[in-house]
Structures are given as C-alpha cells and as structure tokens.
Q: What sequence folds into this?
C-alpha cells in the first residue's frame, strides 16, 4: 500500500508542475454543444464550427455532443465545460427545460450562453433561430397541401414531444391545414422518431398499416423523411403519397430520386454553427446586436432581434432553403 | 490480500490514476475544487440507480432492475403534479421541497413493491418483469405529462440540495454517501443482509434453511424502488424540471457500474464500497473526456475496456508477477 501512496503523491506533484503552462494560454474558447454526435446534421454543423475556428486566430472553437440523444448526457457535458472554464457555450438543446439549471450556473461563473433552436430558454444571452418557426411550419404544410391537392389523410412526425421547434412546426402546419384546407384530415399526429431513422421507419410502417389511404406526411427531425421514405418505398406507395419535411439533401437524395420523398426543407447547419460562434464572439466582446444587423453569413444578413423570455435576446434570420428532386444536388451535405 | 480487498484497492487506484491523468492532460482546472464538486454532484443520479441494480443482482435468480430510471422519472413527475396542487412553491419553498421528496419516495416505494410482487409472487424473471414495469412507468409518465417536460421553476432549497456544496461537498453527494453507507450496513450487519447474500448464492439451500424467499425479494425490490425515487428527487433538484425520458441512457450505465463494482450478476456477492468507487471512476473518466473534447463515442469504448480490465483483474492472479511481500 505504501508504494501506491508514494506513486499517487509523486504523480500529483508532477501534475501540478505540468499543469502550470496550460493555464497561461488566455485565448477565448467557444464550445458548441450539440444534441448528439455522429448524425449528419451535426457533422455538417461541425464544418461551420471548424470554419470559424480556422478564420479566427485568437479563438479556439470546438464542437462536442453526447453519443446518445439524452438530455441528461447533454447537461453533464455542459457542467463539465463550466468546470473547465470555457469563455462561451453555444448549445443546441435537446430539451431546453432540463438545461436551465446548468445554464444558470454557467452564467453565474461568467460564461456566455448562446442557444440555437431554444427560444424558450431563460438563462441564455442570446438564442438564434434560423427563421420564424411558425412561418417555416406553414411553408412546409403549404407545399404538402399543394401536393395532396388539398384533401386526404395526413400525419406529422416530431423528433420528440419535448423538442420545442419540431412541435412549433407541426402545430403551425396543422393550424394552416385546418384553416385553409377543410378536406385535409390530420390523423395520429406527432409521432415521435427520437431522431432515429429506424424509429421513424417503424412508426411510418405502423401508420401505413393503420391508415392504408394516408396521403401526406410532414416530418420534423432531419431523419424523419428518410425513415418515412423507406417505409413508403417498401410499401410501393411513392406515387400516392406526399412526404414533406426537414431533411438533408445528401441523406434524402435517394428517396427524392425515387419520389418516395417529395420535397425537403432545411437550413444549412454549417451556417448555423458558424453564426452561433459569430454571435458568441460578439457577446464576448461586449458588442450589441441590433435589429437589422449583418452577421456576415448567408441568410443572417439582416436579422430580426427581439427580447427573449429571460434577459437574453432572440436573433432570427431568414435562412431557409427548400429543394426537390431537380436541385438537391446543389447542396453537398 | 483477500479477493474482495484487492478489488477495492484496484478500484481506488483506478480513481487515483484517472484523476492524475486528468490533471496531467487537462490542466489544473480538472482537479480544482469546483470541478471536483461538479463531478461529485453528477455521481448520485447514476450511483443511486447502480445501488438498486446491485441489490437486485445480489438477490440472485437473475436479479436485475431495468425499471430504475423510469421509476425515478415517474416519481418526480407524480410528486410534482401532486405537490403543485397542495403547496405553492413561492409561498413556502422549504415545505414544497420536503413534501416533494416525501411524495416522490412514496411513489418509489409503491413502484418497487409492484416490482417485488410481480417477481416474487407471479414468478416472472426479474429481467422480463422489470422490463415490463419500465414500460408501464414510462407509459404512465408520458400519459401524465403528454410527453413534455414539466418545469418546477426556480425553487431555492431544492436547487441548493442539487448543487450547493456544504463544507466543500455537494449536498446530494453527501446524501448519496449516507444512503450507500446505510445499504452497506444493512447488507453486512443485519440478518436481512446476511439472508439476502445466502438467498442469492443458493436459493434452494436458503429455502431449506428457512429463509422466506418471497418476502426477501419483495423487500429488496421495494428498496430498489426507493433508491430510484431518491435518484428522481436528485434529478429534479439538479435540473429543476422533470421529464419521462430523462437519463434514458442510464439503464445500461447503472448495470455497468454495478458489474464494474464487482457485483456478481449471478447473485450472492456485492460490495457497496466497490460500487461507489466504480461510479466515481466512471464519472471522473467521463468528465475528463468532456474536458479534453474527446468524442463521447470513445467514452463508451473506454468504459468497455475498463470493464474488461476489471473482470480480468478479478479472475487473473497478478501476484505471481509481483515481487512477493511478507
């Protein structure tokens, strides 16, 4: 036992000596925390974070995220970053309300908090929305309604019932259909895919069984349309159904080609990742972001700024894109 | 050194090694008091669930509790819905917090009792039974909340419990250690604990020895339920919100901690101190990876390596390669 203690003691001494220089570096660090790593959406976001990191000499920008999409794991990562003492945390919250506590403590330690897709967060200095969520949901639904000819059964998918933006999109979609297209009947609304294409596939198969005459699907998570598209392709119903929703061109491409998925809507996560870091930098430098400001990224050239639920601001761009079979190839992600 | 002791030392050593490596790689921030407190405050959620799994495993007959995190979330949800109707948190936050904890633990007790009864009297395999109750608890929780998170609002006493250090130690960690000590005492020094070990190592012999197996099983799983609900209170206090799917990755991690802690999955053996050390080791490792910005996928890999190393250390006798000491 004695030798063990000695070993531990000397290692501790050594560590304090070696740790000295690490403290000396005083460049700003901005860490982007995403919902889950390894998903294409967030891989693309990482490109934006890396691009920002390459553009700015004095700032160390990185991206991290849990291996499983779990709000608990995300909260733990943020806690560890607070302990590490980063300058700013840019977070895409899995479940905003589960992060309030840890974000309040982050701000208490002088760390700036920037959120994306979480306009309900109280303890943030700024929240960035790519666009007005209700308008986006309505836009998707308009496309869907046109494809369906304004009538028939349709359903909606969300990543999870706790994902705020997903719910705003499908709620706005449902409101739009109800107000303008009396022939459209919403059935089994808000199926949860848990950001997992296989779960979306299973759910879509169940729905095809329960409602063989279903005509429309509105997806919310980037993988919803992939799962739905696969189920529809297997059922051989590509021509009778309309699948609209958030999606990434590269992933969804094969389904757009076969017509299983009809049109996808998205904003470029690379730009979102970049712009989160731009806003972080501005806030760290004490710069104010005002209505109509130009953040230097496509779609965020004239942002709308409003007061958030807490002390922070909500920044809204006009950064949506929609593509179909003919032009999805223009976006290499 | 006896086998059990060697394992304790080995686990303690791993804690030290990971901590020192962390200090070397991540800088002094890693071992400053703030980070140590943060890490300590993160342990109880998983640690309490792992203790539940430990008890279930010790009881033998393929004992396991998969419903822990589901019951933890359900306890928080039910308790908040009930207490919200009785006490206005703004008026008396302290009363609110205590009532919240009380009701949550009551829910945990009922849930655990249900597990125990299903396993002991319906004769279901624990794996299947707790998988079933996990779905049941989750289902009820989703039904009660429509799937969305319930925000508790900022309740100072509850928030302090989850995050405030007293004498340098976060309160929730203190509670975890006290609970662990209590379980350790029960296992080691009470007739119940001794009987449980016997039941776990040889159910047939225990039966002929006059040990009331069914009652033992019911009590064990009830304790598991109570532990889960305490975890639920910790979760609620640390996030100030409750949701049905919080910690959905915890089921397997809790089992991993128990096995890392040397608990025999076939029953009859388990040491609370080792489980506690396994929980802290995993926590330090996971925080370290976040400090270094290493992919969380790699963390799972590292946990797997750690598990294999520990299992090997329990089986292989390293002392033949070490210089003998008297």
A:
């Amino acid at each position: 036992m004695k030798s063990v203690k000695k070993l531990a003691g000397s290692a501790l001494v050594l560590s304090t000596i070696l740790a000295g220089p690490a403290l000396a570096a005083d460049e700003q660090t901005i860490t982007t925390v995403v919902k889950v790593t390894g998903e294409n959406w967030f891989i693309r976001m990482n490109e934006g974070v890396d691009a920002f990191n390459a553009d700015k000499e004095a700032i160390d920008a990185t991206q991290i995220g849990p291996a499983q999409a779990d709000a608990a794991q995300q909260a733990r990562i943020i806690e560890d970053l607070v302990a590490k003492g980063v300058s700013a945390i840019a977070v895409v919250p899995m479940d905003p309300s589960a992060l309030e506590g840890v974000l309040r403590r982050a701000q208490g330690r002088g760390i700036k908090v920037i959120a994306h897709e979480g306009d309900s967060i109280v303890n943030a200095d700024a929240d960035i929305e790519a666009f007005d969520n209700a308008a986006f949901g309505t836009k998707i639904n308009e496309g869907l309604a046109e494809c369906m000819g304004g009538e028939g059964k349709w359903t909606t998918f969300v990543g999870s019932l706790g994902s705020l933006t997903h719910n705003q999109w499908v709620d706005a979609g449902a409101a739009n259909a109800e107000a303008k297209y009396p022939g459209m009947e919403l059935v089994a609304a808000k199926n949860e895919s848990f950001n997992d294409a296989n779960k979306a596939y299973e759910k879509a198969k169940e729905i095809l069984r329960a409602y063989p005459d279903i005509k429309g699907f509105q997806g919310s998570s980037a993988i919803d349309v992939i799962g739905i598209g696969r189920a529809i392709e297997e059922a051989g119903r590509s021509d009778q159904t309309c699948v609209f929703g958030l999606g990434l061109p590269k992933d969804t491409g094969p389904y757009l080609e076969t017509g299983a998925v009809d049109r996808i809507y998205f904003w470029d996560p690379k730009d979102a990742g970049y712009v989160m870091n731009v806003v972080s930098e501005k806030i760290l430098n004490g710069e104010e972001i005002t209505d109509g400001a130009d953040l230097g990224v496509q779609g965020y050239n004239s942002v709308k700024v409003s007061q958030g639920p807490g002390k922070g601001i909500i920044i809204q761009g006009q950064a949506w894109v929609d593509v179909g079979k003919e032009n999805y190839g223009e976006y290499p992600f | 050194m006896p086998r059990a002791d060697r394992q304790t030392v080995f686990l303690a050593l791993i804690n030290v090694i990971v901590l020192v490596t962390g200090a070397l790689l991540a800088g002094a921030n890693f071992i400053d008091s703030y980070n140590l407190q943060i890490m300590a405050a993160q342990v109880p959620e998983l640690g309490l669930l792992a203790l539940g799994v430990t008890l279930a495993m010790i009881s033998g007959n393929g004992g396991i509790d998969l419903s822990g995190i589901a019951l933890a979330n359900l306890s928080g949800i039910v308790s908040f819905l009930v207490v919200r109707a009785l006490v206005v948190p703004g008026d008396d936050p302290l009363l609110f917090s205590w009532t919240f904890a009380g009701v949550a633990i009551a829910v945990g007790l009922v849930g655990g009792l249900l597990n125990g009864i299903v396993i002991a009297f319906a004769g279901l395999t624990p794996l299947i039974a707790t998988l079933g109750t996990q779905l049941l608890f989750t289902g009820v929780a989703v039904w009660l909340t429509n799937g969305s998170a319930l925000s508790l609002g900022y309740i100072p006493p509850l928030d302090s419990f989850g995050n405030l250090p007293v004498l340098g130690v976060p309160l929730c960690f203190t509670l975890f250690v006290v609970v662990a000590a209590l379980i350790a005492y029960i296992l080691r020094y009470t007739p119940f604990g001794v009987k449980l070990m016997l039941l776990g190592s040889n159910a047939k012999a225990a039966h002929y020895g006059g040990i009331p197996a069914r009652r033992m099983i019911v009590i064990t799983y009830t304790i598991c339920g109570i532990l889960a609900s305490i975890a639920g209170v910790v979760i609620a206090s640390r996030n100030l919100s409750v949701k049905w799917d919080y910690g959905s990755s915890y089921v397997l991690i809790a089992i991993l901690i128990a096995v890392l802690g040397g608990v025999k999955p076939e029953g009859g053996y388990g040491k609370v101190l080792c489980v506690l050390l396994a929980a802290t080791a995993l926590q330090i490792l996971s925080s370290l990876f976040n400090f270094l910005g290493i992919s969380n996928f790699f963390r799972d890999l590292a946990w797997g390596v750690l598990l294999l190393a520990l299992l090997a250390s329990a089986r292989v006798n390293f002392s033949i390669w070490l210089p003998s000491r008297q």
